[in-house]
Every structure is written in structure tokens, then in C-alpha cells.
Amino acid sequence: MMDHHVLILGGTTEARHLAERLAGLGRVTLSLAGRTKRPARQPVPVRGGGFGGAEGLATFLSNNDVTVLADATHPFAARISANAAIAAEAAGVPLVRLERPAWSPVAGDRWIEADSVAEAVAALGSSPRRVFAALGRQELAPLEVAPGHFYLVRSVDPVEPPLDLPHVEYLLARGPFAMADELALLERHRIDAILCKNSGGAATYAKIEAARQLGIDVLMVRRPTMPAAGVVASTVEQAFEAIAHAMALVSERGE
Ligand code: NAP
């Protein structure tokens, strides 16, 4: 039987769960970009940092005898997913993409959708508002274009240097977040708009439910387009099955 090596491109909770699920099936390596200062504990060996574009990733796949590539990166991490599609094709390695479903608005939601953070900030309008910005610390620069609003910024790592804004407060926290806590947070800061990305998943959905309950606007940044490559799975279990199937095909081919 052929020795398998799955490389998971991670940085998400699902990637960690997929690594756990795959741990008994063969060799598994989890790759992190190295953005978070204290990443969560991982159940399999981890490598860190960029590969050097699609070409670097293809070389890594070949040099490390990777037999299946699993792209379980965040739905907004468009570059690494594009690189994964190109590299998998170049190295002749099957690709499985784990993509958690996007959120959709339901009755009572007051969403204003935008294609970028800058577009969402513009949609806040000109009169001063109290905005809860639940965004990554690298995505906050467009807020400085609209200094008239108050911003409550929540991120995993500190925002350094701080934003050049007159009315801003920072909050450090890592999900999952509970509905009661989100409601209390929005009320305490008298928030009237949430600015966030359509990340999907349960861990950060409570703020959307809280906004619905309070009847406040959600400036929702749409997802970037992902490459149409490989097998797409929407749950960890589906991804696990697709990877096991890909392994079986690779083994057949190798015999
Ligand atoms: P990105 O813009 O798609 O990627 C930028 C570069 O970072 C890539 O070209 C690659 O460098 C490197 N990279 C990204 N993910 C990597 C990984 N898992 N392993 C090794 N290198 C990686 O991605 P991003 O938006 O900066 O996100 C970086 C990481 O944070 C991802 O792993 C993602 O899952 C996680 N994350 C992102 C978000 C978000 O909203 N974007 C939210 C939560 C978690 P090279 O070209 O040199 O290989």
C-alpha cells in the first residue's frame, strides 16, 4: 500500500478539525501562514509561513511527496486558494477544497452588501455612526477614510500601529462568540452598524443574530471568487470522504 501525505492549508477551525479527522489515515502536515501570534494548538505537525507563490507550493508538494492537497483556508484568503489550484495542477496532485457555506440574509436582517471593506465603509454614509468592526487587523485601513464615525474594533491580535482615527476602541477576542455576549456588547457601546465579512460558520454568527434582534444594519462584505478547481466540500466530514476517495484513486494509479 502506498504511503499517503496530506498537506492541509489551514488557518481555520475547520482545518484543525480536518487534521484531527485525518490523523489516523496517514501522514498529515498542516500549513499556517504565520499571521496569528499565538495560534491554537494543532493535532498534527505544523509548518509555517508562505511557500513563495504557486511555484513554491508546487515545489513543496513534489519535494515532500504530498499525495493529496486540502485547501481549508478562510473563504477570504483568495491568493493562497488560487495558488493551491495552480500548484495542484502543476504537481499532478488531487485538490480538495473545504469551503464553509456563506451566510444568507433571513427575515429581519438589515444587510447592506459590499464587495470590499472600502465599499462597506462608504455605505455607512456621512452622518456619524457607532460601528462595530469585526475584521482582521490587516483589513482596517479603509476605516481611516471615514474618521467621523466611532469604531469598536475587535481582532484576535492587537492592531499595531493603532489606526489614525479620533474615535476608536479596541477589543481583543477570539471566537466562538455567544449571542448573549454579542447583544450585551452591542448595547453597551450603543452600536448602530456592524461591519464584517461573510465568513460563514457558527463561531461568529451570533453578532448577525444580535444585529437582527436589535434591528441594526450589517455592512456585509461579500466573498471573493474562488478558483473552480478540485473537489469542493462544505463540511469537514465531506472533505474527509473526498480526501479518502482521492487517496484510493492515487493508490490505484500508483500500483
Ligand atoms: P491570502 O491573501 O490568500 O494569502 C497571502 C499569502 O500568504 C499567500 O500567497 C501565501 O504566501 C501565504 N499563505 C496564506 N495562507 C497560507 C497557509 N495556510 N500556509 C502557508 N502560507 C499561506 O491569505 P490571507 O487572507 O492573508 O490569510 C492568511 C491565513 O489566515 C490563511 O491561512 C487563512 O486561512 C487564515 N485566515 C484568513 C482570514 C481572512 O479573512 N483572510 C481569516 C481567518 C483566517 P506564498 O504565496 O508565499 O505561499
TL;DR?
With about 260 residues, this protein is an alpha/beta fold. Helix content is about 30%, strand content about 20%.
Description:
There is one protein chain. The chain is an alpha/beta fold. The protein contains 7 helices and 12 strands. The strands form 2 sheets. Strands 3-2-1-4-5-12 form a 6-stranded parallel beta sheet, with helices on both faces. The protein has a 6-stranded parallel beta sheet with strand order 6-11-10-7-8-9. Strand 4, helix 3 (78-91) and strand 5 form a beta-alpha-beta unit. Helix 1 (13-22) crosses helix 7 (236-254), helix 2 (53-63) crosses helix 3 and helix 5 packs across helix 6 (206-214). The longest helix has 19 residues, at 236-254. The N and C termini lie close together (8 Å). The model has no long low-confidence stretch (mean pLDDT 95). Bound molecules: NADP nicotinamide-adenine-dinucleotide phosphate (NAP). Residues 9-12, 31-33, 35, 50-53, 56-57, 73-74, 76-80, 83, 136 line the site of NADP nicotinamide-adenine-dinucleotide phosphate.
